[in-house]
């Protein structure tokens, strides 16, 4: 993609207004938190203190809107505490420009590295830098700095208290995540009726697993509806795929295929009903015809062989899903041993060493997060120096714009840069024009600021340009509380916002971290994860008595994570104005299809794992041994742009097939696995033409 095309596409993405589900009550609660803080401090304190405290309430509210599975009050308190500390340290160094610039650079570097912990932490860390830049311009003493920091924390306390006192859809994000996973399974079942080898996006299942991780406090209060259906949904997916597969399930045509389609339609209806019940905390309601379709028919089309086993397993699992979800909304249950071991989310204090390890891991130049931190530090430092040197006043707007715009990847940074400037122009023009015409007093400015922030909370998910316009107007009215002249604010805001945006965009062009150059590494990681997943499943066929379900489960999760990393990398690479000489777009698509087929073939084997008392399979053991030896070389070949070969696993498979014939589920699924290997080798062949 050329630079002009990349800039055009990212600009369009930044200015796009999306339609999304609005949450007016949540937005109203957040705006009320800001209103309470500003009103109290205006009544009891000074306008400058009101401005400072307003940033704490505003930023804490923004933190609670981020995608996180932690309790909303914890997010509000954590954001407020971080902002208060940032403000206090900034005040201590504000008297000496050189010392403040050094502190700002260090703080920005840590904020950039904070993206290694997670996106919510990265957003809050960016707000910390922005708050440091803005609030230290309000003159005060060291004791006053403590007051400012305390008021910012107070803003977070108010937001947290409102969330506790006025809960809106408790456990709503967890309910939505689980409901989305079940709805995705329902959609998958419908698509399998028409396309027996339809693909499935595992992201909803991964989100549901993340949402199911609980802190000790959450584990004591979680509704019973959120306990069991997730694990059952995980087990449903391979059963649905094996039932629909024309090789390992129902026949491609005829009565068996009709029966399979009927079962898939019934499964979709059940999963949709359960998803609706979980999302809104209601009992499950199923039509009688759906229940009739899930009974074993006394006459008519029936399934045989592996297809029949899949159908019977599907019926049992669907009954378990309904039973697990059809519970009173307020019922709770103790956390199971499995959840205590696998899905226990660490408390905030115990998260500190985890975060420190993540920071150390990413604090290197070769890391995308590390490069982002360095890039952000340079841009903010240069923006601070230039903003202070220019005779515009309000020099903090330039570095503050940069820190709020910049993200670790090219596409989002450029899109946000364009959206930020466009939204700022609109917001400042409207708010500045209103201030110039009406000349509102402090209390009127406070009311207008609260209205703007409420609108921002409401429209926060519709697009960054809309949110930027609301924030720009909010800041204009907030400065009006402190007595800032509107004309000076407009001029400085527009000019320095443009400067900060241009610095951010130029920095990414001069110091990039292109995802395109890492595509082969992402493919190799996905291939490696696929291989480990296949080996874990084959180990059960080789020695059923020694089966370790947890090992298979962990390998599946690693495979899903590797696939998601590839998909995210490929999506980011499509927006970048560079081209990888080692792999073409056509080869990317072909390799992605081959690796997805590998994962699907292994999943089909997993759907028919033998019982613990089944006979061991020497053929599966020999094939697994050959695959284990071949995978490291294949992964290295993908990374090094060499020819990928799987000669030894193919020989082991041929011997296995001669012994077992072609009737075994594992044998037929392994054939699909080898066909996918061949597709991958062809896609990544050094002599392949670019597509």
From TrEMBL:
It comes from the Bacteria. It is found in: Cell membrane. InterPro entries: Memb_transporter_dom, YccS_N. Residues 211-231 are annotated as: Disordered. The keyword GTP-binding does not apply. One of its GO terms (cellular component) is plasma membrane. Residues 384-506 form the Integral membrane bound transporter domain. It is a multi-pass membrane protein. Residues 85-189 form the Integral membrane protein YccS N-terminal domain. Keywords: Cell membrane, Membrane, Transmembrane, Transmembrane helix. The chain crosses the membrane at residues 26-43, 74-93, 99-117, 149-168, 373-397, 417-438, 443-460, 466-482, 494-514. Belongs to the YccS/YhfK family. This is Putative membrane protein YccC. The lineage of its organism: Bacteria, Bacillati, Actinomycetota, Actinomycetes, Kitasatosporales.
């Amino acid at each position: 993609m050329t630079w002009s095309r990349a800039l055009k596409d990212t600009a369009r993405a930044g200015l796009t207004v999306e339609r999304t589900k609005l949450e007016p009550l949540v937005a109203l609660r957040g705006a009320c938190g800001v209103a309470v803080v500003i009103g109290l401090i205006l009544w009891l304190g000074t306008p400058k203190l009101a401005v400072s405290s307003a940033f704490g309430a505003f930023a804490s509210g923004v933190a609670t809107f981020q995608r996180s599975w932690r309790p909303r009050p914890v997010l509000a308190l954590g954001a407020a505490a971080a902002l208060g500390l940032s403000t206090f340290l900034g005040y201590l160094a504000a008297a000496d420009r050189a010392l403040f610039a050094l502190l700002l650079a260090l703080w920005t570097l840590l904020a950039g590295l904070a993206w290694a912990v997670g996106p919510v932490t990265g957003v809050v860390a960016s707000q910390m830098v922005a708050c440091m830049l803005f609030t230290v311009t309000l003159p005060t003493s060291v004791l006053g700095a403590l007051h400012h920091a305390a008021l910012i924390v107070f803003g977070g306390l108010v937001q947290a208290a409102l969330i506790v006192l006025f809960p809106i859809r408790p456990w709503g994000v967890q309910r939505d995540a689980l409901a989305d996973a079940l709805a995705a399974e329902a959609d998958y079942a419908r698509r399998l009726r028409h396309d027996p080898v339809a693909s499935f996006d595992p992201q909803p299942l991964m989100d549901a697993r993340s949402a199911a991780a609980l802190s000790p406090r959450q584990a004591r209060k979680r509704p019973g509806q959120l306990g069991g259906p997730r694990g059952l949904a995980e087990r449903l997916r391979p059963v649905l795929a094996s039932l629909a597969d024309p090789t390992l399930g129902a026949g491609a045509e005829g009565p068996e295929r009709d029966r399979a389609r009927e079962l898939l339609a019934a499964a979709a209806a059940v999963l949709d009903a359960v998803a609706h019940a979980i999302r809104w905390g209601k009992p499950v309601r199923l039509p009688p015809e759906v229940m009739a379709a899930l009974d074993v028919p006394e006459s008519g089309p029936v399934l045989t062989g592996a297809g029949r086993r899949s159908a019977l397993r599907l019926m049992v699992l669907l009954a378990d899903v309904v039973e697990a979800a059809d519970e009173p909304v307020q019922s709770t249950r103790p956390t199971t041993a499995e959840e205590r071991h696998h899905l226990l989310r660490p408390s905030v204090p115990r998260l500190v060493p985890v975060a420190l390890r993540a920071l150390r891991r990413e604090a290197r130049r070769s890391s995308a997060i590390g490069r982002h931190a360095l890039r952000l530090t340079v841009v903010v430092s240069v923006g601070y120096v230039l903003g202070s040197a220019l005779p515009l006043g309000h020099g903090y707007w330039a570095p503050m714009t940069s820190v709020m715009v910049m993200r670790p990847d090219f596409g989002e940074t450029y899109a946000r840069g364009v959206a930020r400037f466009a939204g700022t122009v609109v917001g400042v023009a409207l708010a500045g024009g209103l201030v110039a015409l009406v000349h509102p007093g402090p209390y009127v400015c406070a009311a207008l600021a609260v209205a703007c922030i409420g609108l921002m909370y409401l429209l926060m998910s519709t697009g960054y340009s809309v949110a930027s316009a609301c924030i720009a107007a909010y800041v204009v009215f907030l400065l009006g509380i402190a007595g800032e002249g509107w004309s000076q604010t407009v001029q400085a805001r527009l000019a320095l916002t443009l400067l900060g945006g241009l610095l951010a965009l130029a920095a990414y062009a001069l110091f990039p971290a292109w995802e395109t150059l890492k595509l082969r590494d992402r493919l190799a990681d996905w291939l490696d994860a696929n291989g480990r997943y296949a080996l874990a499943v084959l180990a059960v066929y080789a020695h059923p008595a020694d089966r370790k379900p947890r090992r298979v489960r962990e390998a599946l999760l690693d495979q899903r994570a590797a696939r998601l990393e590839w998909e995210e990398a490929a999506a980011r690479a499509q927006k970048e104005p560079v081209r990888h000489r080692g792999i073409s777009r056509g080869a990317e698509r072909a390799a992605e299809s081959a690796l997805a087929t590998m994962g699907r073939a292994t999943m089909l084997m997993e759907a028919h794992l033998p019982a613990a008392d089944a006979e061991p399979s020497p053929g599966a053991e020999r094939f697994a041994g050959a695959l284990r030896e071949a995978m490291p070389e294949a992964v290295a070949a993908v990374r090094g742009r060499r020819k990928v070969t799987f000669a030894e696993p193919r020989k082991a498979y041929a011997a296995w097939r001669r012994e077992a014939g072609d009737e075994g589920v594992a044998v037929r699924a392994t054939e699909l696995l080898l066909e996918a290997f061949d597709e991958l080798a062809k896609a990544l062949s050094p002599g392949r033409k670019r597509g």
